[in-house]
Amino acid sequence: MYTKNIYKFKDTDFKFLKDGIQFDDGMPNIPWPRRWLTDVSSMLTDDAKDWLRKVGIGPGRENDSSRIFETKPNYACNIHNDGSYNSGELTFYNRWSINYVWGGCRNGDMVWFKELPELTKEYFKENTTLGHKPQIYDPSKLIEIERNNFIGGLALVRIDIPHQVINHDPEFSRWCISIRTGVIKDASWEDSVDYFKEHLNIN
Ligand SMILES: [Fe+2]
Question: What is the distance between the alpha carbons of residues 141 and 1, in angstroms, rounded to a whole number?
Answer without folding.
Answer: 26
